Amino acid sequence: MTGNPRDDADFTDQGAAKHPYQFIQTSQLGQVHLVGHSSGGGISFYMALEHTEIVKTLTVLSAGPQMPPAGEGPTQFDAILAKCPPDPASYEHRKCWLLALAHTEETFPPAYAAADEYMGNLRKAVETRRRMDAMRAARPGWPDQENDAYREQAWEKARSGVLQMPILLFTAKQDTLSWDAAEPHAMMRRELGFFDIVGTKNPRVSMIVINEAGHFPYREHPEEFNADLMQFIDFESGHR
Amino acid sequence: MTIPWSNPGWHTVYARSTLWTLALSLCGLASGADDAAGQASVSPTASVAGLEAKFVDVEGVRTRFYEYGEGEPMVLVHGGGRGTTSSANNWSPVIPLLAKRFHVFAVDKSAAGMTGNPKDDNDLSREGEVKHMYQFIRTLQLGQIHLVGHSSGGALVFYLAVEHPEIVRTLTVVAHGPGMPAADDGPSKHDLAEATTCKAPQTTYEGRKCRLELLAHTPNTFDEEFQRADGWMADLPKSRQARAKYAARNAQQQGRQQEDYRQRMWDRARNEGLRVPVLIYAAKQDTLTWDADAPNAMMRGELGFFDIVGAKNPRVKMIVVNEAGHFPYREHPERFGADVTHFIEFWNSH
Question: pLDDT tens digits, residue range A95-126?
Fold first, then answer.
């Protein structure tokens, strides 16, 4: 339900990372425990790099586009998505997309997809798509080129040790986004590659992989996720 | 007579000198390997870090263990073995931490540490190790336990959980090596390092010390006291006998038997499903799980094992820690203790 950025250029990842920072400043939260999921994990990572002083701990959930690839070819998710109804704005497509990422049919109740569709059809969302399409037409390669370049820079900064706060990578074994379609099981290359980037000069990086969960482990195993997140924060708070 | 320990390579000299060992044993001097500089000797029970060792007869095999703490029983099983290197001493940094919450038993495996050799040479196999550990648990009447195994001890506890699920409350396997699918198609980073760096064979103290140091991530992972006790235990007559007997067995047949056993255990875990919570604990810089061709470890072995134990068991979790090698519980004992405790406590209440 959040509005669009004023500047079209802020539809990139770099632009998107400014918004949570401003939210935190506007709400005067001080230092925060930052938790991001999927592409939100990547945005949180970027925000943490730009503003290390306000991030106490960083938790990145599941694989996202800001991580290294799952393999050489398409992911299991790509393979499933190819069979979904084509119109991305339709309820059927959204439901199919969510099912491709979920591990269970109950992960997203019907009301969720309905709310998703509602928000996706608001005037401001229609406006988002219109503005982004216009940008793509005006600038070939946008936003991917910008996003890729920014990602490379971010990886370099992370490798050099800019992030020294405790970092938890929390993910699930049946996440189709981390699963090379050519392999029988997910081998978590995205998360492990990301581990290597943020862990190059930061000893306080760890990863947890849980079972029987897809791209939304915190929806499918909320108690386990919660307990692990609390444990991570409590342990690191007691061992500065 | 000239004391051979006065030169820096005394370990090697001592290791190669069978007659010296026998003589010292007979004179009752084997319990104190003093060097000419009068440095600390190895305790008669080869214990370290001020721990007090106990012994129990397990079907005729004198078995050493450490016992600390109160609460639900937990058994810690070390790696290495068969008269080579490693013992319950490996767990010394975490025993006091885990003992705050559990009744901890850290035990020397069959033919390892200070524990005697099996009566039947065929029990020098992994199956024999499993049998001995099961009988240890039964002898002490521990009931249902939290099992924690490291490296080949991790393979052991996995097999034990498959064979005797009724006695296992939770299963934690740490960097468990031979029980996992292959990490790679070729040699691991460790294999290459050992081949080029460790000149002395694995049957000598120098060779073993070299291997241990390569598997560690820091120079402080193994202190002097540990190394002395480890070397001393590995040079006991019973340890040499275990190595000699194991080496005398047909290597191909032994390898095939071990592989068949492992495959049967994998099939059972996949098909029947392990019904206990499983924690797979690994470290990002464990060179044993690092494909020599890869810039970083990609945990293929652990992830393959995850798929096996997780096939019909939702309660499987893997934790990967950073800046640690093959002995993460020695290098980050507080983190390890907290993680294992949290894992057990969560499943106890869910």
Answer: 888 889 999 989 998 888 889 889 988 999 99
Count of structural domains within chain A? 1
DSSP A165: S
Q: What is the CATH number of the domain that holds B177?
A: 3.40.50.1820
Total tally of structural domains belonging to chain B: 1
A158 found inside a domain: yes
Distance in angstroms (rounded) separating the CA atoms of residues A192 and A177: 13
pTM of the predicted structure, to 2 decimals: 0.91
pLDDT at A90: 78
pLDDT value of position A199: 97
Compare all CA atoms of chain B with the CA of A170 and give the residue at the minimum distance: B319
Q: pLDDT > 90: what percent of chain B?
A: 67
**Residue A232 Cα distances to A31, A49, B338, angstroms:** 17, 20, 10
Number of Cβ pairs closer than 8 Å across A and B? 76
- In which domain, by residue range, is A149 found? 8-74+143-237
Distance, CA of B283 to CA of A206 (rounded, Å): 9
Contact B303 A210 (CB under 8 A): no
CA distance B350 to chain A (A): 9
B17 domain residue, yes or no: no
Domain that holds residue B231: 51-348
Q: Which helix (H) or strand (E) holds A154?
A: helix A144-159
Residue at A109 is within a domain: no
Query: Is A174 among the domain residues?
Result: yes
Q: For chain B, what is the mean pLDDT?
A: 87
CB contact under 8 A, B317 and A211: yes
A150 within domain boundaries: yes
CA angle B287, B74, B348 (to 5 degrees): 100
A68 chain-B contacts, CB cut-off 8 A? none
Lowest mean pLDDT among A154-158, B64-68, B226-230, B339-343: B226-230
CA of B227 vs chain A CAs: smallest distance (Å): 26
